[in-house]
Amino acid sequence: MKAIVLEAADKPLVLKEVEKPVLSAGEVLVQIKAAALNRRDYWITTGKYAGIKYPCILGSDGAGMVAEVAGDEDKKWLNKEVIINPCFNWGDHAEYQNRDFTILGLPENGTFAEYVKVKAEYLYPKPAHLSWEQAAALPLAGMTTYRALFTKAKAKKGDKVLITGIGGGAGTFALQWAVAAGCQVFVTSGSGEKIERARQLGACAGANYKAQDWVGQLQLMAGGFDVIIDSALGHGFDKLLDIANPGGRIVFFGGTAGNIPPLNGRKIFWKQLQILGTTMGSPDDFKGMLDLVNKHQIVPVIDEVFPLAKAQKAVDKMENSSQFGKLILTA
After folding, report:
1. pTM: predicted TM-score of the whole model, two decimal places
2. N or C: which end of the chain has fewer CB within 10 A?
3. Where are the beta strands (DSSP E) in 37-143?
4. ω before 139 within 30° of 0 (cis)?
5. What are the structural domains, with CATH classification, of the chain?
6. How far apart are CA 230 and CA 227, in angstroms?
7. Measuring CA to CA, how many Å separate 34 from each of 13, 17, 161, 171, 298?
8. How many CB atoms lie within 10 A of CB 50?
9. pLDDT tens per residue, range 7-22
């Protein structure tokens, strides 16, 4: 089969012929119709991710047809249209993942290939209203932001929600989920065009974080925020304490801009704030995300679709952070 292979951190992704996966008991073979990039894939290509092995086939997100099953109990999936939950071995605790938790695409070979093998328990029916490309966009970023908003932040109708750094797949999903839940959503971005795109998706307003008075602008727009979703940390994270409402929840799941700067703990305890970390999601989070998508007929935002052979071009675009929505590969 054809697959995109990362042979070393200093080498570009290449399309190669590799062995088709061989199934063990409980596993199924999915013929990938579309896959999606995540920031995780980019960091792996740069060598800045824990546990990298070479060669490897990247890709956590995928949608396709079940082509083979290993046992009779899984025949119900044969020839079905599915999407894959890429979070394996979550464990028994809803609050946190198991020590042997892994994500599809490292260490196990991922979805940037014609076929991928996974355990049948990680299959879910593809939402019928979505194309292959739209369905492939959902899994990792969709589940991560669903967990951040609802499992962690307990966002509810009427809450004022701020999403920082709108534009990537996670940010656009957070916006779509919050709008569907009836929240008042505001955004930040370094691009006026991306702020306008967010408004078209239901955001009330946004501020350019490159402006010196971006905090003041947000305070004028919204007063304060019940929920703040952040994926960057770094300089400016301390300002979120000022614009969080009393009892507010600040949830983060990334650190692309650096570490958390020094924080004024007095603001945290006096305003009864919660600063919550989260990553990926449980099976319940994945199911909840799909239920939300199906109930509201939500369509993921796709920035650009590339053929599988152009995977490196897609990674290069992600490096520049010029996209709005998900970047997709088609087999």
Report:
1. 0.95
2. N
3. 61-69, 81-84, 87-88, 102-103, 115-119, 123-125
4. no
5. 2-138+300-330 (3.90.180.10), 143-277 (3.40.50.720)
6. 10
7. 17, 18, 31, 21, 18
8. 7
9. 988 789 999 999 999 9
Confidence grade of residue 233 (pLDDT, cut at 50, 70, 90) = confident
pLDDT at 21 (0 to 100): 95
Find how far residue 293's CA is from the centre of its chain: 14
Tokens of 285: 């989070």
**Residue 123 — φ and ψ, nearest 5°?**
-95, 145
The span from the CA of 68 to the CA of 30, in Å, is 7
- Residue 169 neighbours by CB distance under 10 Å: 30
| Spatial distance between the Cα atoms of 311 and 327, rounded to a whole number of angstroms | 10
Q: Give CA–CA dist 36/300, Å, rounded.
A: 12
**C-beta of residue 206 within 8 angstroms of C-beta of residue 198:** yes
The mean pLDDT value for 228-250 works out to 94
**Amino acid making up residue 29:** L
Q: Which residue carries 């896959």 as its tokens? A: 35
State the average pLDDT for the chain.
95
What are the Cα distances from residue 239, in Å, to 208, 209, 242, 247, 300?
A: 14, 11, 5, 16, 30
Cα separation, 47 vs 16, in Å, equals 20
pLDDT classification of 202: cutoffs 50, 70, 90: very high
Task: Tell the burial category of 251 from Cβ atoms under 10 Å away from its Cβ (0-12, 13-18, 19+).
Answer: buried
Q: Does the structure show a pLDDT above 80 at 192?
A: yes
